[in-house]
Amino acid sequence: MLYRPSIRWALVHPDFEHEMIDGSFVPQQIESLGIQGVPSIIADSKLLHSGRISFLDLIVKLEAFFGTIAANTSSANIDLGAFEVVVIGGGPAGTSAAIYSARKGLKTALLAERFGGQVQDTKGIENLISIPYTEGPELAAHLREHLTAYPVTLFEQRRVAKVDIKLDTNELAGKPISKWLKNPP
Ligand SMILES: Cc1cc2nc3c(=O)[nH]c(=O)nc-3n(C[C@H](O)[C@H](O)[C@H](O)COP(=O)(O)OP(=O)(O)OC[C@H]3O[C@@H](n4cnc5c(N)ncnc54)[C@H](O)[C@@H]3O)c2cc1C
Question: Residue 103: pLDDT above 80?
Answer without folding.
Answer: yes
